[in-house]
Amino acid sequence: MAKDRLTEVLERYEAVIGLEIHTELTSLNSKMFCGCPVEFGGEPNTRVCPVCLGMPGALPVPNEAAVEATVLAGLAVNCDIALWSQFHRKQYFYPDMPKDYQISQYDLPFCSGGYLDVEVEGDAVCERVDRSGDDEYTTRIGVTRIHLEEDTGKMVHVGGSEGRIAGAEKSLVDFNRAGTPLMELVTEPDIRTPEEARRFAQKLRLIIVTLGVSDCSMEEGSMRVDGNVSVRLRGQTELGTKSEIKNMNSFKALHDALAFEIVRQADMLDAGEQVVQETRHWDVGAKRTSSLRSKEEAHDYRYFPEPDMVPFAFTEQWVQSIADRLPELPDAMRERFMATWDLQKYDATVLTSDLAMAEFYEAAIAQAGAGRAKTVANVMINDLSAHLNAAGITMDESAVKPAMVAELVGLVDDGAISGKQAKAVFSEMVETGEMPSAIVEARGMKQVSDTGAIEAVVDAVLAANPDEVASYKEGKTSLVGWFVGQVMREMRGQGNPQVVNQVLKDKLGG
Ligand SMILES: [Zn+2]
């Protein structure tokens, strides 16, 4: 998908995108309507009971912690919390759902009418935005609602060769996931580009992880994003026919699938064809969407109030007690990092884009001192991030600890080692998990800043190279770099570069 093709299409067409984001509340101990544990993986059909298997006569009991988590999420994205709400039955047949209906919410969801402000790099393609910087803009994406429901089981399709009849495929069903508390957030169709969609999903993920209610793993399916997208000619007010895209299991897939779909629909309209309302599947390998089924309408589900549970009546005081539990959210944390540590917006954004990163930073500053906030940020944003990316590991899996970064920054600041030596120490620290001071000691890497010692080496180098000294004095001052190199070689790289430079210039009269 060439990016310039999308840009070209978006000059003539406006894309209208809304997202539906399902988040499994993986941090809870039990399922939505029974006491079975919530865990990823495990032997199939070992975390089940009559309730989540949909046995006749089994009665659901709502998970209070799941209701609280949903209200907490609603408050975090500026929603109104309904004081009166209810579960409904959503009827449809699929083998991964043994009751033949899903307990969900219909017209009385817990949360509605919220929004998230999303910062996006580049230029906006519509007017409805604030410029928040030279190279980015902020757009407000409405949150229509957040409701709570139960997840389905999982179908496992087994290849033909393993079937009883050669060439036939068989499908197995695992109900371990059935009944897992699932929070569904629906946005307003306020999103205009694939990048805005990606930024929204990333920001929402960070917020939900911060709330501590889900791990939001797109790979493991605990966060699943579906997109509704349509296009219309710029200036047209009527909405185009939309398609719904499923199976986007990474932020990149979300972006690429929406970009593909916008171009596909625009091409159809350009050719005088009509877009069909349907559900489409994103094929990561082929990098294209393909038709899955025609889209159901809400009335196909024959929603009706769940007769086994009474409606929820919340009080303002109860909602306030949930609001009191809201942790510091990512935007507030970024503002605090900028104000407290005097960081640039970019640095503060990177450091607060991941909770583990933010905690690491604060722990390192606590040991290094506030005066080294900027240098600690540099080591983390440059060296540490590069190391994590290259190794493909998370902060928690790395051998590098806050105390090590704090000590390393201190050694450079105090002139004990050079910046170049610090890079070498960092590489070894990553491998061994040893403290920088121990590495410096063991490798004899101490930087020599003692002027007397450096002067002795400089004198020897100048005496050994009279021709170069003469050239320098005749005006070829660029030779200073060559002299520095000679001195550093004699000192096996341990001379303090600033002191070496200064001594050389003094001696050469430069
Ligand atoms: Zn169960």
Sketch the major β-sheet: 10 strands, mixed
Oligomer: single chain
Rough outline: elongated
Strand content: 15-25%
The pLDDT mean sits at: 91
Description of the structure:
The chain is 39% helix and 21% strand. The protein is α+β, with helices and mostly antiparallel strands. The protein has three domains: 3-318, no CATH class; 330-443, no CATH class; 451-508, Arc Repressor Mutant, subunit A. The strands form four sheets. Strands 1, 2, 6, 7, 8, 11, 12, 13, 14 and 15 form a ten-stranded mixed beta sheet that branches. It has a three-stranded antiparallel beta sheet with strand order 5-4-16, with no helix packed on it. The chain has a two-stranded antiparallel sheet with strand order 3-17. β13 (243-248), α4 and β14 form a beta-alpha-beta unit. The mean pLDDT is 91. Zinc ion (ZN) is lined by residues 31, 34, 36, 48-49, 51-52, 179. Zinc ion (ZN) binds at residues 31, 34, 36, 48-49, 51-52, 179.
